[in-house]
Amino acid sequence: MANVGMDYKDRYVLDALVRRDGSSLYGPRERWHTYYRAAASYRISQEPWFGIDLFGELVFRYSIGTAGTRPRFNQQYELWNVSRTGGLPRNSAGNATLKPQFTREQELGINSILLGNRLSVELVYAWQKTRDQIIGVPTPTISGFNTAAANAGIMSGNTIELTVNAPRLVDRPDLTVGLTAVFDRSRSKIDHWGRACFYGHTITSELSNHEYSCSGESRGDFWGQRHALSVGELPSWAQDRASEFQINDEGYLVWVGEGNDYREGISKNLWGTSAQMGPTTYRWGEPFMLVNEMNVPVFVKMGTSLPDVNFGFTPNVRWKGLGLYAELRSQIGGKICNRAKQQLYSSTRHADLDQSGKPDELKKTTDYYTRGVRTGSNNRFVLPFIEDGDYLKVGAISARYRLTRPQLERFLGSFAPADLSIGVTGRNLFTFTGYSGYDPESGRTLSRVETLGYPQMRTLTATFDITF
User: Fold this and answer.
1) Domains by residue range for the chain, with CATH
2) Measured on CA atoms in the order 239, 242, 247, 248, is the torsion positive or negative?
């Protein structure tokens, strides 16, 4: 490893590093690789000719760096299964030529301090490209193995982030008001895939199983199935009986039979009847999936996990002995999969299945939800369970009051301690959202999927500190 740094006239700053890494996780021919990083900044506000009084500091900076992601240890070896009935079936073929997943990231930034050190602003734009993605590729049938790990695919992404910090927005002897705000937006896509396109993830789980893995596609997208919503979406084998279908009160296309109405399921005892048209069985009143002419469900893009913008605010106020602090965070745009709702449909425990209070003509059967809307599986990404993920969350509020010795002596005299503080902090207090699930912050950045589990707890903590 070699590292060098330079500072010229306190205005031009340079730092660079080169290192050589080795790991036995790679194949014998790929065990050593070289990585580097470099950063340069220009403190333009330190130039003699810079005469803008608004800025106490203004810096332009650029950096570049590389890193590698190691494969799993067993990906360079053949994997065999042991089965009491099947003997020793082959699983994954080894690959002794695996390279590390290589990422190069670059960053441009502007840092400034303004208004006599009362305000700082940082604007950053970062972009990265990752090549030699470690993915699973099919092997020739004659080999007997299912897949092998290989280097393929190129992905790129970018992030823009703005941070505004005003620690003393108001600065008076008895009153201080501060605010920090952060905004960011990220995007990522597959530039080159290098293999057949498919829906789902690779054996490394590098991609989410709701993405479409193909060149030009964006990371974090929700691809899945949806129901038929109009008679024009009926397959050819049902078109000549299109008059037997109606759109129900929830917007789904359902089969009702000739001369019937979707409101007559109970009055005419139609629930549970069905009709066979071509390869498809249509059950009375139940939604069904959109399929192509080969009777295969059609996959459609339903949105993206990535929000249009993330932002957070942390205001703080100090007035005499009282201190107040809050943490607010929010996302605007982006989708979330309510897998928890899907699972509750499966176990018939979701509130949607409760038909009490509905008029008889609008009541639905349990199968309508568990088989029709849910499509009979918890593992599918289906449009009714993809919801808007916008939210505003009050993550924390803290209040603290401090009494000094002179104040305490009024009540306690010579027994007064040097200092006394009383505080209370609440976390995960309120969430404002149109999302019907438990927590819109569930899942990962590129895969916002909420499953059944304990939601985040709301906590209240009280503190009492005495200094003698």
Assistant:
1) 2-225+301-306 (2.40.170.20)
2) negative
